[in-house]
Amino acid sequence: MNRLRLSSQELVRSAKARIEEIETGDAIALHGDPQVVFVDLRDIRERQRSGLIPGSFHCPRGMAEFWVDPESPYFKEIFGEDRRFIFHCASGWRSALTVATLNDMGFKSAHLKDGFTDWVEKGGPVERKD
What we know:
Number of domains: 1
Low-confidence stretches: none
Order of helices and strands: HEHEHEHEHEH
Shape: globular
Largest sheet: 5 strands, parallel
Distance between the termini: 44 Å
Mean pLDDT: 96
Number of helices: 6
């Protein structure tokens, strides 16, 4: 049996200690600001089931490092824009790990501390796609 040196919770805790975390209320207040891009890392099925932040950009978690890198063949132009990027997932775990990695790469970004679940609970706008 493999023994982990670090648990997933420890990785998330370490990531959160070194990244910018945006509280849900503050993020809701930023919604609609043309200088802010909310980036949804959740699986497409999560977005279909739970809805999404209106105007958010979908970036599957497994592609984030490649989509932000201008030297990657997978680079997405949106990540070359001079805007503030706030990544989110359902609870803030995946986005914390992603933002820590992106910051290590030199891509300045933040994450929604408590994720989309808290966004919904706090009354943030939600769009449903059929």
